[in-house]
Design a protein that fits this description.
The protein is 24% helix and 30% strand. It is built from five helices and 16 strands. The strands form two sheets. The chain has a six-stranded antiparallel barrel with strand order 3-6-5-4-7-10. A six-stranded antiparallel β-sheet has the order 11-16-15-12-13-14. α2 runs parallel beside α3. The longest helix is centred in the first third of the chain and has 23 residues. It is elongated. 33% of the residues are buried.
């Protein structure tokens, strides 16, 4: 599970678009809330029982590490779904961690917790873009650490927090899930490569930069939509790229203007003069999301 990330591919068994596993030592935590503790505990119990059954049958034995020589902790490898939650009142860029579709119900019913905001800063753009690329659920690898409970600490009549029971009767305390996501630069590279196959016309929303409004465009846009985030069309026009919402020109991107949009202009030209991207209106300013904002040499 600690292999070097390579490609994002669809897993035929689960039907999910799977992100390759990053290194366990860089895994990121998940915020669990009071209303998700019971669903998460049930999720771990089901995954533990399935992993033990598979190991007993000689299949997928790597999902569950054996106890240590003194009966120590174990690590349970699982697969989870990542679900953008624009309905989240606290943070419309929130990403839910849910049990995979095989567990049944909607992704909201399978909700287990949220990625922390501090991790969304670097990983959120790529994950939201991947989730929007296809109709397949977006999945990633994760693990849960299990620590055996001493018999004196276990009383079936009392709450022992998050816990699971192995087939041999051993009770384990359960830590929160940790997502084995690739390093953010690797994730963005893989996301762009995936988009080139699935939606070659799409400029992924990885990095946001402010773009200048065309005169009157802000006021006209307000009459057409109240959405703060929206899709725009990028059109190449004599060495510049114009940004359109429907037929309304919002902005003009010029090469060399601090270099932020140089590669975007080049990419639109490579695509034959037209591409789509995502933009955002925030406190009166226009923010355009692009894949790469490093300046080109010799422009």
């Amino acid at each position: 599970m600690d292999g070097t990330p390579q490609f994002i591919t669809r897993d035929p068994a689960s039907g999910m678009l799977m992100i390759p596993a990053g290194k366990a030592k860089f895994a990121v935590g998940v915020g669990l809330w009071d209303d998700t503790l019971a669903p998460f505990s049930a999720f771990v119990q089901r995954e533990l029982s399935e992993a033990e059954a598979q190991a007993e049958a000689g299949r997928r034995t790597g999902r569950l590490t054996p106890p240590g020589p003194s009966g120590g902790g174990r690590r349970l490898h699982v697969t989870v779904q990542l679900v953008p939650r624009p309905d989240n009142a606290y943070n419309p860029h929130a990403i839910s961690v849910a049990a995979p579709p095989a567990h049944g119900g909607t992704d909201i019913e399978r909700h287990l917790g949220y990625m922390y905001d501090r991790n969304l800063v670097s990983l959120g753009g790529a994950l939201r873009s991947l989730a929007a690329l296809t109709d397949h659920p977006l999945g990633c690898h994760a693990f849960v650490d299990l620590e055996p409970l001493h018999p004196d600490d276990v009383d079936d009549g009392e709450d022992v927090g998050l816990h699971a029971r192995a087939a041999d009767g051993t009770r384990y305390a359960v830590d929160g899930p940790r997502l084995m996501l690739p390093w953010w630069e690797e994730l963005q590279t893989m996301a762009v490569a995936c988009a080139r196959t699935v939606r070659p016309d799409l400029i992924l929303a990885l990095i946001g930069h402010w773009a200048p409004w065309e005169p009157g465009a802000r006021e006209e846009l307000a009459h057409r939509t109240r959405d703060k985030e929206f899709t725009v069309t990028l059109r190449s026009d004599q060495r510049v790229v114009r940004v359109y919402y429907e037929e309304l020109c919002l902005s003009t991107l010029e090469p060399g203007l601090r270099g932020f949009f140089d590669r975007t202009v080049q990419r639109v030209e490579e695509l034959g003069g037209t591409a789509t991207a995502r933009a955002e209106e925030h406190q009166g300013a226009l923010k355009l999301f692009v894949e790469d904002s490093t300046a080109l040499t010799g422009v």
